[in-house]
Specification:
GO terms for molecular function: DNA-binding transcription factor activity; sequence-specific DNA binding. It holds the Pfam family HTH_18. With 574 residues, this protein is mainly alpha-helical. Helix content is 72%, strand content 0%. It contains 28 helices and no strands.
């Protein structure tokens, strides 16, 4: 999946401005062009032709130096740092110059962005704690009522939670960011590039959550919006993600088509991190299409890039296992050993990065975000002079939640009590509560004619008799009964036994065994007062379940109530 690519001593002004590209000069053809023209050219090239985008960012920076325009200096440093990050090059000098420019000043109302780009650089290097520290500083400098920054911070937290594989927690953060950007479209605050980026981010996290259908719907929307607004910075990543999704959906030809389509721009933009992952997935598609030689070629390319840029992804680890197995089959010991060493090296690099992925690092940052939210609420309440209303509202919400919990618990209790009473009535009226111990009637004529039904075959009558004895003798109460163990006991094939139970009982083996046991204990508890004094764990042990949780779940699924409520009702009745 796409990885998100979005010393500090201020000695004197010339040091601050010394980070522009050495010897860079604005071409004569651009000297008389407007600043807006340069900005538009940068926007059109960004993430499509990053070399060209960096060129225009240097033009902006040079204009800022020449005219002593701090707005242009700010944007120049910021844009070059972003491009360097995308190209896997060192963007820190530009981020440091940007921080020096805005340090201790509320310059341009965006000092926080300087720390964000520094954090993004650290994030892309796998230095997650350092990234978190920069985001925390950015949060401190952010304007109190800046909604744009507030949602951007949520996006960055979502990215960090994705890095720690907390996908379900990251999903609502990406949803909120998408809804925020979507709501701005058509207003004077719209940011079409950020809106399309939010579509990709949400599609990506849905894919991480294995919701590939929803991910593909968003990809289709993203591609449509790219074409509508003529903004193609995310287009290639949407195409790549579509290829990866189709791999997991096992649409291999379609997956290959999308992945190969994304390759050209990744190479052009020197996006080697994503190119390594793309080659891994092409290799996997080839491998599962039984094109082994081609698969190995792509998997080796993936490894070569990862080694060159020292960036390994856990997702591509099994690619090494495929390469090792390939050379093992060929008897090529030299290459087999080579890629065993490569796998060990990759594991070491991944482990080193993963050490920074402790979930504890979010405590500090999540707390900072909560403080930010609290400050916003307090400001709103102060503006309305409603501290008292806030207190009342808090009490109402807490009371409502408490009452709701009580109501829901009472509903559950009533539901369980109702099902327990119905269960007792069925037992009193000698009604069968589950389809257990059904007679083994001869199959109907149309079943006999069906060759797929094995229960009508004479050679299986002996097994049917053994099943009847198994039920009659309550042998199902033994522990650790499995389809394999019972088929050996009946001296038959496990598949035949499974099919017989399915045809005659209409259920699989696990359902059949559970229902036998639950039906037995429902009846036994009705008549055996001593057993009603057992603990749930003891009862589950008595009838062959491995633990009380499995027994309780099976009892609830079959009867609609809990064993504790059923026993309670039996005791009250007596």
């Amino acid at each position: 999946m796409k990885r998100i690519h979005f010393i500090l001593i201020f000695l004197c002004p010339f040091l601050l401005f010394s980070q522009s590209k050495k010897g860079f000069k604005i071409p004569d053809s651009l000297k008389n062009k407007s600043t807006q023209y340069i900005y538009n050219a940068y926007r059109d090239a960004y993430q499509i032709d990053n070399e060209q985008a960096e060129f225009y960012a240097n033009v902006i920076l040079s204009k800022g130096k020449k005219d002593n325009n701090k707005d242009l200096l700010y944007d120049g440093y910021y844009k070059i740092a972003r491009i360097k990050n995308l190209k896997g090059e060192n963007g820190h000098p530009y981020a440091d110059s940007l921080i020096a420019l805005v340090k201790n000043k509320t310059y341009k109302n965006f000092p926080s962005n300087a720390y964000i780009i520094k954090g993004i650089l650290y994030n892309n290097e796998g230095k997650y704690k350092d990234a978190l520290d920069q985001y925390s500083i950015a949060l401190k400098y952010s304007p109190k009522d800046d909604q744009e920054f507030f949602y951007r911070i949520k996006l960055l937290i979502g990215i960090l939670k994705t890095a720690t594989e907390e996908y379900k927690e990251a999903l609502p953060l990406f949803k909120e960011y998408y809804e925020y950007q979507k709501a701005k479209i058509g207003t004077r605050h719209e940011d079409k590039g950020a809106y399309i980026g939010s579509i990709f981010s949400l599609a990506n996290i849905f894919a991480k959550c294995e919701q590939y259908g929803k991910s593909n719907e968003l990809i289709a929307l993203g591609i449509k919006e790219c074409k509508k607004y003529k903004i193609y910075s995310q287009y290639n990543y949407l195409i790549m993600l579509k290829g990866i999704n189709n791999y997991y959906l096992k649409n291999l030809p379609l997956s290959l088509r999308y992945l190969q389509s994304a390759e050209r721009l990744l190479r052009k933009n020197k996006d080697y991190s994503n190119l390594s992952i793309l080659y891994y997935f092409i290799g996997k598609v080839k491998h599962e299409s039984h094109l082994e030689d081609e698969a190995i070629r792509y998997l080796i390319q993936s490894d070569s890039i990862s080694y060159a840029i020292q960036d390994y992804s856990p997702v591509s680890r099994d690619g090494y296992e495929i390469i090792i197995d390939y050379y093992k089959k060929k008897g090529d010991i030299k290459n087999q050993l080579k890629y065993i060493n490569q796998l060990i090296y990759a594991d070491s690099a991944i482990a080193k990065t993963q050490k920074n992925l402790s979930k504890e690092i979010f405590k500090k940052y999540d707390t900072a975000l909560l403080i930010k939210e609290k400050e916003g609420l307090i400001k709103t309440l102060n503006n309305r002079n409603s501290i008292y209303i806030w207190f009342i509202l808090f009490l109402i919400i807490c009371s409502g939640l408490f009452i709701n919990i009580i109501i829901e618990n009472r509903k559950k209790i009533k539901k369980y009590e109702k099902h327990a009473k119905e269960l007792l009535e069925k037992m009193d009226n000698r009604k069968i509560i589950i389809t257990e111990n059904e007679p083994f009637n001869a199959p109907k004529q149309d079943e006999v004619e069906n060759k797929n039904h094995i229960s009508s075959h004479p050679k299986f009558q002996n097994i049917i008799q053994k099943i009847e004895i198994f039920e009659k003798n309550h042998s199902f109460l033994r522990k650790n009964i499995t389809l394999d163990s019972l088929s050996k006991e009946f001296d038959t094939n496990r598949d035949y036994l499974s099919r017989l139970i399915n045809e005659l009982k209409g259920k699989n083996f696990t359902q059949y065994l559970n229902e036998l046991r639950i039906n037995y204990i429902v009846s036994e508890l009705k008549t055996n007062e001593k057993m009603r004094k057992y603990t749930i764990a003891a009862i589950s042990e008595e009838i062959g379940f491995n633990n009380s949780e499995t027994f309780t779940n099976a009892f609830k699924k079959i009867t609609g109530t809990l064993p504790s409520y059923y026993i309670k009702l039996l005791n009250e009745e007596n």
